[in-house]
Write a structure and sequence with these properties.
The protein has 142 residues and is α+β, with helices and mostly antiparallel strands. It has three helices and five strands, in the order E-H-H-H-E-E-E-E. A hairpin with a 2-residue loop joins strand 3 and strand 4. The longest helix has 16 residues. It is elongated, with a radius of gyration of 17 Å.
Length: 142
């Protein structure tokens, strides 16, 4: 992705979306890497016995997807300074998870160019499942 510059950004801009689709194998790999072996992420029968429709995607994995969205957008010379999200809805494996973000504020301070954003994951029906906020610094063209 080409480098984005502070001068090119304005409030209301949507950053390029990132689409993810987790397989059950990816959930198992994430469990191994993160240490989150709660069975609702890989054992369908267990998940259903807890009242869920089926397996669900790890919240921390969706957080990582949003981190990728921000790092991809900020580019080589931009930096993610602050980022967090909440887990407000469930996503299922083999279902598209759309990662989105919109610019909410831009300002300069101490010689740095700050961009604040709302970010979220979204289900195919448009429901936001992991809303969050981020602060990114971007380089200037000059």
């Amino acid at each position: 992705m080409p480098q984005v510059y502070f001068e090119e950004i304005k409030v209301g801009d949507e950053i390029p979306q990132l689409k993810k689709n987790c397989s059950t194998q990816q959930l198992v790999l994430w469990a191994a890497g993160s240490g989150d072996f709660y069975q609702i992420h890989y054992d369908k029968d267990f998940a259903q016995r807890t009242g869920l429709k089926g397996l669900i995607v790890h919240g921390a994995l969706k957080n990582a997807f949003l981190g990728q969205l921000l790092h991809d957008w900020a580019g080589e010379h931009g930096h993610v300074r602050k980022f967090g999200c909440a887990y407000r809805g469930m996503d299922e494996p083999d279902q598209d998870i759309l990662c989105r973000g919109v610019v909410t504020k831009t300002y300069q301070d101490g010689g740095k160019n700050y961009v604040e954003l709302d970010v979220w994951t979204e289900k195919p029906d448009g429901a936001k499942t992991s809303p969050g906020t981020a602060v990114v610094t971007l380089p200037s063209k000059s």
